[in-house]
Specification:
Pfam families: TPR_1, TPR_16, TPR_19, TPR_8. The protein is mostly helical. It has 15 helices and 2 strands. Strands 1-2 form a two-stranded antiparallel ribbon. Helix 7 runs parallel beside helix 9 and helix 11 packs antiparallel against helix 12. The radius of gyration is 25 Å and the shape is elongated.
């Protein structure tokens, strides 16, 4: 064995040790000490740039600490060397999505799905991409695939419901958003979306009940107060609607949101002329 080969073997062994040190800092899929782990991964790749495990984990770690360009560079190097690295495509999909490159992110998630069609999250993430690209029907298909694999997937239920809202299909939207509400009943965003679907279907009492809960969870959000006013007005509770829209105006004024305050005052005007039952 030549001295060069011996030196290479020593470097590879040291690189493997450095990777092992980094992995000792991982618990439940996350590094407990990101800086120490990054130092070990940097050392591993300095010694052996071809060490795929170190390249993958450094890309993932850089993504976690919001160094997206550096994370993408590592993912690209990894996938150039190992084009069928499923986890590499999955991670690069996340990075590209974060960077706003939805088309290429979708391609990476497609690669993951083609390799392993049982990963519900890959369908959800590709659905996010399709949503952002305006490909709503394809997004719904992906959320549906995800829910077939994991019926309790919160994001899939919520995002499919919102996609149906985009298409004006309010009954399936309400079903999905109601399921999302069951999964996370403290989420004011979900409650608000569910109420919007109910209002579109003329279910004003249902919407008002849900929105009162949302307001209790997030009392400083003017949009919730305004939507509650709309639901109450639909239920012919004009005094309640006026009270809620006054709160919305006050909240918008307090934050200096003149545009929303103007819209809320227009909403108020529409109630002032209505008779009280």
């Amino acid at each position: 064995m030549t001295s060069q080969e011996i030196n290479l073997q020593e470097h590879q062994a040291e690189a493997a040790d450095a990777l092992s040190q980094a992995m000792q800092l991982m618990h439940d899929g996350q590094f407990l000490d990101a800086n120490a782990a990054l130092d070990s991964l940097n050392r591993a790749l300095e010694l052996d740039p071809s060490l795929a495990g170190a390249r993958y984990y450094r890309s993932s770690l850089l993504f976690e600490i919001h160094q997206y360009d550096e994370a993408l560079a590592d993912a690209n190097i990894l996938l150039e060397a190992k084009p069928n690295h499923t986890k590499g495509h999955y991670t690069r999909g996340f990075i590209l999505f974060q960077l706003g490159d939805l088309s290429n992110a979708a391609r990476d998630f497609t690669q993951v799905i083609s390799t392993d069609p049982t990963i519900a999250e890959a369908y959800v993430r590709r659905g996010f991409c399709y949503d952002g690209l305006g490909r709503t029907d394809e997004a719904i298909d992906d959320y549906t695939h995800a829910l077939a694999l994991d019926p309790a997937h919160l994001d899939a239920n919520y995002r499919r419901g919102m996609a149906y809202m985009t298409l004006g299909q309010y009954e399936p939207a309400l079903r999905d958003l109601s399921q999302a509400f069951i999964l996370d009943s403290e989420n004011s965003q979900i409650i608000m979306a569910r109420a919007q679907a109910a209002i579109k279907l003329g279910q004003f009492d249902t919407a008002a009940t849900a929105l009162k809960r949302a307001v209790a969870l997030d009392p400083r959000r003017s949009t919730l107060q305004a939507l509650l006013a709309e639901a109450l007005a639909g239920s012919n509770d004009i005094p309640g609607a006026i009270k809620s829209i006054h709160r919305a105006i006050s909240l918008a004024d307090a934050t200096g949101d003149k545009a929303m305050a103007r819209l809320y005052r227009q909403q108020l005007e529409s109630y002032l002329g209505k008779p009280t039952p």
